[in-house]
Design goal:
By secondary structure, the protein is an alpha+beta fold. Helix content is 16%, strand content 40%. The protein contains three helices and twelve strands. A twelve-stranded mixed sheet has the order 7-8-9-10-11-1-2-3-4-5-6-12, with helices on one face. Strand 10 and strand 11 form a beta hairpin. It is globular.
Length: 213
């Protein structure tokens, strides 16, 4: 068989309409184009060298474009990450303590972009397709173009409506955090107070410096 014929046969799936990473990415972005706010429930499993046993956490995630989040962990420990796009508050219910981090705009926007069509984040990653066992889901692998101390790569699971329903983050050290998203809601707006922390009597506030968590 000639080399030319082999190349043509290998190219048949793509010619027949097999989606490319660019195709899927375009559809994901289109599906989220009109999404201003998003609420989802999540179940998150973390495993790897840093975990003696897998850690399973559940809760809710809320965001509002372009850079506001409220990430509430309900079990096994109550904790909430709140950001207005500039400041990040980590609220620890058990000991009534709030850690405050400043200058987190890039970090927060990355999370928002991941769940709402990637947006400008695409420029930071090389994007390729991943095979998925669930037929109605498509996988995308995002590998940072520049060395990242926290992320080796990210895997996104996209459903038949091109909504992001799963996010897997793999660290350079082999830790793996798998967040599955359910009960998707897209309200037109969320109250501003959902994305800020107000000083509360009886709570301790600690101003943090250096690297954000």
């Amino acid at each position: 068989m000639s080399s030319l014929l082999v190349l043509l046969l290998l190219a048949v799936p793509a010619l027949a309409g097999e989606p490319t990473a660019a195709d899927v990415l375009s559809k994901v972005q289109a599906a989220h184009q009109e999404v201003a706010a998003l609420q989802v429930d999540f179940s998150q499993t973390s495993s790897g060298p840093s975990f003696f046993d897998p850690l399973v956490q559940t809760g809710t995630f809320e965001l509002e474009r372009p850079d506001r989040i409220r990430w509430t962990f309900v079990a096994p420990t109550a904790r909430t990450y709140i950001s207005d796009g500039k400041t990040l508050w980590i609220v620890e219910d058990e000991n009534k303590t709030v850690q405050v981090f400043g200058r987190v705009d890039g970090l927060v926007r990355r999370y928002v972009d991941l769940l709402t069509g990637l947006g400008d984040a695409v420029g930071d990653f090389d994007v390729t397709l991943l095979a998925r066992a669930i037929p109605e889901r498509t996988g995308l692998k995002l590998k940072p173009k520049l060395k990242d101390d926290q992320i080796a790569w990210i895997e996104l699971e996209v459903d038949a409506q091109h909504h992001v329903v799963g996010v897997v983050v793999v660290s350079p050290f082999g830790d793996r955090t798998d967040m599955q998203l359910t009960n998707r809601r897209t309200p037109k707006d969320l109250p501003d107070e959902r994305f800020t922390w107000t000083e509360t009597v009886g709570w301790s506030t600690v101003q943090m410096t250096g690297t954000t968590p």
